[in-house]
Amino acid sequence: MVQYLVFLTISTGLYALFALGLNLQWGFTGLINFGHVAFMIIGAYTTVLLSLQGMPIFLAVIIGIIGSSVLGLLMGASTLRLREDYLAIVTIGVAEFLRLVAQNEEWLTRGTFGIQRYPLPLGTFQPNLAGKYLMIFILTLLAFFVVWRLFINAKTRLKDGQEIQGKSFQYASRNSVLLSTIFTLILVLITYINGVIALYNYTYKSGLMLLVLIALAMVYYGLDLLVHSPWGRVLKAIREDEEIPKALGKNIFWYKLQSFMLGGAIASLAGSFYAWQFTTIYPSSFEALITFNAWIIVVIGGSGNNAGTILGATIFWAYESLTRFISDNYDFISSAQLSSLRVMIIGLILMILIVLRPQGILGKKGELSLGK
């Protein structure tokens, strides 16, 4: 059970990273990207191939991030001046093109046979007792960071709700904020306790879990600073009506390009963790479904809200694990039927959510970009 929860934590963390990049592009800037997995492909294959050539893993990750940023620059420069649907079409095409290149260029990517036995971060690391306590201490700091940001987010939501709704902000709205905060605190506590046990009984996946959580915390905090800066306010203005910032002398194209490139860089980092988690990568691992899973995460959590994106990733993987648990314990449904049922149920959940709360769980209705 401990190792399964470690797997869920890693999966939730890397999908949250991946979706944070999409949330920056769409939730904050209004850029429709249906090929977000293209950046993950660049990050995963660049990291793996360069590390196999003897390059330090950290440097390989940086080059992958730069490569994804360049890809975002090329895609954005050719489409961002056109209508929004052109960007959506180009991103889908580029993602499929890169997947087919990885599938057919066996001299580079080994094709459908995939790449195995590549260097892994902390792959040969065997900490002593002091090292284990140090990692547990880092995990504790991360837990305090999450709790601190959680209370700040709850306080902000309460304040914004009172300012927007005034006296109509009654107990139901306050209770929803409190319930979501308590629910998240319980998840943090479970993850922390399980993480402490896993790190004390150290395995490779335990170390990777800690790396994922550190990366997620750094990216989340960095994005939070950016989106609340003047740069982030320009992105929100572009999302709502780009003619207004344009009239104020802002270079709309350049801001869009920056957002698209940064979102791609974050997705590239998620691609590196994706390769490290499964220790083998195949072209079939990067199908369009991964992009649409990220869209599901952003829509559920709330577009334009980074905390909502992380909550959406948690709910998504909780749903995935529960449906697998049903499959493992009942004989009345086959794996193929369960796969179809998963899609049907999550589609139904999305339909209900969009009707009842189109801004998502933590999103703000006044900042909704679904109608663009």
Automatic annotation (TrEMBL):
<keyword id="KW-0812">Transmembrane</keyword>
<feature type="transmembrane region" description="Helical">
    <location>
        <begin position="177"/>
        <end position="202"/>
    </location>
</feature>
<feature type="transmembrane region" description="Helical">
    <location>
        <begin position="57"/>
        <end position="74"/>
    </location>
</feature>
<feature type="transmembrane region" description="Helical">
    <location>
        <begin position="252"/>
        <end position="274"/>
    </location>
</feature>
<keyword id="KW-1133">Transmembrane helix</keyword>
<keyword id="KW-1003">Cell membrane</keyword>
<feature type="transmembrane region" description="Helical">
    <location>
        <begin position="340"/>
        <end position="362"/>
    </location>
</feature>
<dbReference type="GO" id="GO:0005886">
    <property type="term" value="C:plasma membrane"/>
</dbReference>
<keyword id="KW-0472">Membrane</keyword>
<dbReference type="GO" id="GO:0015658">
    <property type="term" value="F:branched-chain amino acid transmembrane transporter activity"/>
</dbReference>
<protein>
    <submittedName>
        <fullName>Neutral amino acid ABC transporter membrane protein</fullName>
    </submittedName>
</protein>
<feature type="transmembrane region" description="Helical">
    <location>
        <begin position="31"/>
        <end position="51"/>
    </location>
</feature>
<dbReference type="Pfam" id="PF02653">
    <property type="entry name" value="BPD_transp_2"/>
</dbReference>
<feature type="transmembrane region" description="Helical">
    <location>
        <begin position="294"/>
        <end position="319"/>
    </location>
</feature>
<feature type="transmembrane region" description="Helical">
    <location>
        <begin position="6"/>
        <end position="24"/>
    </location>
</feature>
<feature type="transmembrane region" description="Helical">
    <location>
        <begin position="133"/>
        <end position="152"/>
    </location>
</feature>
<feature type="transmembrane region" description="Helical">
    <location>
        <begin position="208"/>
        <end position="231"/>
    </location>
</feature>
<dbReference type="InterPro" id="IPR001851">
    <property type="entry name" value="ABC_transp_permease"/>
</dbReference>
<dbReference type="InterPro" id="IPR043428">
    <property type="entry name" value="LivM-like"/>
</dbReference>
